[in-house]
Design goal:
Structural class of chain A: mainly alpha
Oligomer: heterotrimer
Distance between the termini of chain C: 62 Å
Largest sheet of chain A: 2 strands, antiparallel
Number of strands of chain C: 12
Strand content of chain C: 15-25%
Strand order of the largest sheet of chain A: 1-2
Order of helices and strands of chain A: HHHHEEHHHHHHHHH
Number of helices of chain A: 13
Chains: A mainly alpha, B mainly alpha, C alpha/beta
Shape of chain A: flat
Shape of chain C: globular
Radius of gyration of chain A: 26 Å
Helix content of chain C: 40-55%
Structural class of chain C: alpha/beta
Largest interface: A-B, 93 and 89 residues
Chain lengths: 326, 299, 352
């Protein structure tokens, strides 16, 4: 093709000039609108939740956080017992799940024979995919009776001197059951993130430690754990956020008791998320609905804080480990 | 007895023995943790499979529920499966295009600061509990207009958006820059490059993200409890009305004292679990395949 | 231009258009989420739910969608007009009535709530209870089944040394209203400390969601006592306890004992808002075998509604003899003629 023809082709190019700029502009506008919309959804959520809780905010103010009891007859609502329930169940689940998750991650990266690693990893991720309502169903029908008939009485008779293991609840539901259910739910998150972190530890570091005469455990403790420390912290925070926000499975097994704050883990209780799920349809007065929004506001603030902290930690760890291309 | 004389440094002493013992103990613990993890998962999956398989029959999908049935009546959860299909389908139709557009904006047009901000917002949005999203959509759409399948689909779409957007961003970033530059160099305008060349290259990854997002929201109960839970027993397909969905049906049946109800709940749970598993596995297979294809294209 | 460029472009444009229209239709659809004609959507009392289930299969002129979310839920859903009708066993309080903006309540069925127990060694219909003992159990004053107060009522029955777990409703419940209404009448401490409503602050015990939830807990846990709508006790084979009425007789909820309690309506006039309470009928020959926990249950409709025609057709049918006798097997007694007349009169005031 001669130069003249090339220039001619160029001049005849159909998608140049104004039409191209219009196309570029429209795509940018539409995509920009979509991005703006996505970002504003978060703001809209915050706005709607605050708006819904305005009545309760003005009636109870910050005292709501300290108030115990949910009394629609005398129109007195307080979040303290739900905050307590959320705190105890989430922290309890995190305490149980973290060692297990780290152990599983270690097992999968260091100890397991090669042929086991794939299937077990797949199994753990399957657990992550089980919907919370199914775990709640299992908790009510399978776990509850087992806890009620075997585990709780056993714990009570052996460790009953600790106030945590007081008289077992007769129904099989309660804070302890909720802790077990939440542990099962956050175990996959913490363990798969930890597994990836452990896999990312440079082999040179590990081999150096072993070469210097360290035992396997000393290598893990001295090289793997410090290297993965930040990421494991992020994983724990994400797991905590998941546990705090879980409404359905907890609602199914926690027993729905609103006024109790006590040491006994076998008591019934309620959590912020579960209360919203259980009470929303039956809320009778405007103040009660607004108080449910108030509970949602507390939950939203808490999960935003937890999430932001987790995201900051994750980004810092990723940058440090060179996993992010930016 | 050893034929070689070991120096004091090489002979096993108490300290080494202790360290080895600790190592052994930790290995045992780690094995135990692995075993417990497998056991827990196995128990849950086994329960669902065993209890669900017994009640799994065609009636589950074709017959509507008959509550308070006296005696043994053939019933199923047809309305829940129909409703879930409609609601999840609508949610995907809402979330997928918006998610792709957000990813296009972030990848092609946004300055770095905006990119980080949008990325952070998406991750934070991903972490908002489903129950808060539920009460948000309730306040936004249901309080004024009543429950509907649309409101439920919108709530699920809000949950799907961060997943779809994130996956698309990552897969768009994987498209080799040379492809973009070649296209622009040939005079193809930006928008045609993006829509006609970059996007089709990443279709595999986008579909993966979409399928994973569907797997995530197929089992979500809380948003549908607030937006689409006051339903009748007949099978409905109209999203302007509230539609029954599988997770809400399981939630309601789990509270029932009737063992027949429990049996149907287990069967529905098994179907849900199988669906989610198949979706996740196929998404992963798609992801591996598209990554391989992109890798080949870069060469 | 890439080989399939045109095709891809068209596909993308169509997809974008589909998405935009899906969102637009979603907004419009959510905004116009009114039930189509030929169907009625209701929510509320789980007590009436078995009856509505039977009715929705017999009634040919419309599809009836009903969600049992508890009487409290029914009141709030109809107040926000999310549903076409609400159902509640508890009559509207003054503030609820105002919040509903011009609703009327129409009694449309008659049945009872009953105490149910799960005590090893005690069979159905064996245990005898009085209102005072019941109040003390739920107040937390009586904590063991072998308590002398219970033993005194049940000479000859072997009661185990077992902790009592009182089960209550965790949702806004008409059964709770009936139960606490009765306890308030027979026990002064209950009246002042806890009161009578669809949700109260329970001094002790565990909660179950709706009649189903309470039934499930009582059925599976030894030592529990709960209060459940009679229709649920049959289906779930729960063990009832006999309750002592004001005339001194220990009664079970049957069609005749419920009908007997409903005679209380004759003695008093039915107010215009149809607020009737027939718990704890007084001691007299008429009420010798009256059941103390009987109750009417209401359908709540807005006085002015676009669905007036369908609602009036359905409720008139429900008040008729076919519908009322179809639910007798669920222990719903036929309503006294005076109540049916008052119901029809209120229904006539509903207009579109």
């Amino acid at each position: 093709m001669s130069t003249y023809d090339a220039i001619g082709d160029e001049a005849r190019r159909p998608f140049s000039g104004r039409r191209a700029r219009l196309g570029d502009l429209s795509l940018q506008t539409v995509a920009g609108l979509a991005a703006a919309g996505a970002v504003s959804v978060l703001g809209l959520i915050a706005y709607k939740v605050v708006q819904g809780s305005r009545l309760s905010l003005s009636t109870f103010g910050l005292g709501f956080v300290r108030g115990i009891g949910w009394d629609p007859v005398h129109n007195h609502f307080g979040a303290a017992s739900f905050l307590f329930g959320t705190a105890v169940t989430s922290i309890g689940a995190l305490l149980l799940a973290t060692p297990l998750a780290l152990g599983i991650a270690l097992f999968l990266t260091e100890l397991a024979p090669r042929w086991i690693r794939g299937p077990v990893t797949a199994l753990v991720e399957t657990l992550a995919a089980i919907p919370s309502v199914v775990i709640g169903l299992w908790g009510i029908i399978v776990l509850g009776p087992v806890l009620r008939e075997h585990v709780m009485p056993a714990l009570h008779s052996t460790l009953g001197f600790i106030p945590l293991f007081g008289t077992p609840s007769p129904a099989g539901t309660g804070i302890f059951t909720a802790i077990v259910v939440l542990t099962i739910m956050i175990l996959p998150i913490v363990s798969s993130i930890s597994r990836e972190l452990f896999l990312g530890v440079p082999t040179e570091l590990k081999e150096a430690a072993l070469g210097l005469g360290a035992t396997r455990w000393e290598m893990v403790r001295g090289v793997v754990f410090p290297y993965a420390r930040g990421g494991v912290a992020a994983a724990m925070i994400l797991g905590l956020g998941r546990a705090v926000g879980e409404a359905i499975a907890v609602a199914q097994v926690i027993g729905g008791v609103d006024n109790l704050i006590g040491w006994n883990l076998f008591n019934g209780g309620n959590s912020l998320a579960a209360k919203i799920a259980l009470d929303y349809q039956g809320a009778t007065s405007q103040l009660e609905v607004s108080s449910l929004f108030y509970l949602a506001l507390i939950l939203l603030v808490f999960s935003l804080v937890v999430n932001l902290v987790a995201q900051v930690v994750v980004r810092r760890v990723a940058r440090r480990q060179g996993l992010v291309a930016r | 007895m050893s034929a070689v004389e070991l120096s004091p440094l090489q002979r096993p002493n108490d300290r080494l023995r202790r360290r080895r013992a600790v190592n052994r103990a930790m290995e045992v613990l780690a094995w135990a943790a692995g075993a417990i993890g497998i056991a827990i998962l196995g128990v849950v999956v086994w329960s669902v499979t065993k209890r669900g398989a017994g009640q799994l029959n065609l009636d589950l999908f074709t017959k509507a529920p008959v509550p308070f049935a006296i005696g043994h009546v053939k019933q199923g959860l047809a309305n829940a499966f129909a409703g879930s299909l409609v609601i999840v389908g609508l949610a995907t139709a809402m979330a997928l295009p918006v998610g792709i557009l957000v990813a296009i904006y972030v990848n092609e047009f946004a300055p770095r600061a905006v990119r980080n901000a949008v990325g952070l917002t998406l991750d934070v949005l991903n972490g908002v509990p489903a129950i808060v999203i539920a009460i948000f959509v309730f306040g936004l759409l249901v309080a004024a207009h009543g429950q509907s399948g649309f409101a439920g689909a919108f709530a699920l779409a809000v949950l799907m958006l961060p997943l779809v957007a994130r996956a698309t961003i990552e897969v768009l970033a994987l498209v080799p820059g040379t492809l973009r530059e070649a296209s622009l160099g040939l005079g193809v305008p930006r928008w045609r490059t993006t829509l006609g060349i970059i996007l089709p290259q990443s279709i595999g990854g986008i579909v993966t993200g979409a399928v994973l997002a569907v797997a995530r929201v197929a089992g979500e109960t809380a948003p549908l409890l607030f937006t689409s839970s006051i339903v009748g027993n007949s099978v409905g397909w109209n999203p302007a009305h509230a539609l029954q969905s599988v997770p809400v049906a399981i939630f309601e049946l789990s509270d029932s004292p009737n063992p027949d109800d429990h049996a149907r709940a287990w069967a529905a749970a098994l179907v849900l679990l199988l669906f989610i598993l198949v979706a996740s596995l196929s998404a992963r297979w798609l992801a591996t395949r598209s990554r391989r294809k992109l890798g080949r294209a870069a060469r | 231009m890439p080989k399939h460029g045109m095709l891809i472009r068209i596909t993308l444009v169509l997809a974008a258009a589909a998405a935009v229209s899906a969102l637009a239709v979603a907004g419009a659809g959510a905004a116009s989420a009114k039930r189509s004609s030929g169907s009625l959507t209701g929510a509320g009392s789980s007590l009436i739910a078995p009856a509505v289930a039977v009715w929705s299969q017999l009634y040919r002129n419309a599809t009836i969608n009903y969600a049992a979310i508890g009487s409290g839920g029914g009141i709030s859903q109809i107040s926000t007009r999310n549903v076409d009708f609400g159902a509640s066993d508890a009559p509207l309080t003054k503030s609820q009535g105002e919040g509903c903006h011009g609703c009327v309540q129409i009694p449309w069925a008659l049945t009872a709530t009953s105490p149910v127990v799960n005590i090893p060694g005690v069979n159905a219909d064996q245990l005898k209870l009085t209102g005072t003992v019941l109040a003390n159990i739920y107040l937390g004053n009586i904590t063991n089944w072998s308590d002398p107060a219970i033993k005194a009522l049940n000479k000859g029955l072997k009661l185990p040394n077992l902790k009592i777990t009182p089960v209550h409703r965790s949702d806004g419940s008409g059964d709770t209203y009936v139960f606490t209404n009765y306890l308030s009448k027979v026990n002064h401490t209950w009246k002042t400390k806890v009161g009578c409503a669809t949700t109260v602050s329970w001094p002790t015990g565990v909660g179950g969601a709706k009649n189903d939830g309470v039934s499930a807990i009582v059925r599976s846990t030894p030592g529990t006592i709960g209060y459940v709508s009679v229709a649920y006790t049959i289906a779930n084979h729960l063990r009832l306890a006999k309750l002592k009425n004001a005339a001194g007789q220990y009664e079970l909820p049957t069609i005749s004992s419920i009908e007997s309690a409903a005679q209380l309506v004759k003695a008093t006039r039915i107010p215009t808002n149809n607020k009737i309470s027939i718990t704890n009928p007084p001691k007299s020959k008429t009420f010798l075998h009256a059941y103390p926990l009987a109750t009417f249950t209401y359908v709540i409709v807005p006085q002015s509604t676009s669905k007036a025609a369908e609602l009036k057709a359905f409720i008139t049918w429900a008040l008729g003899s076919t519908a009322q006798s179809s639910i007798k097997k669920l222990v719903f007694a036929p309503m006294p003629g005076s109540v049916t007349k008052a119901a029809k009169k209120t229904l006539a005031s509903v207009h579109s």
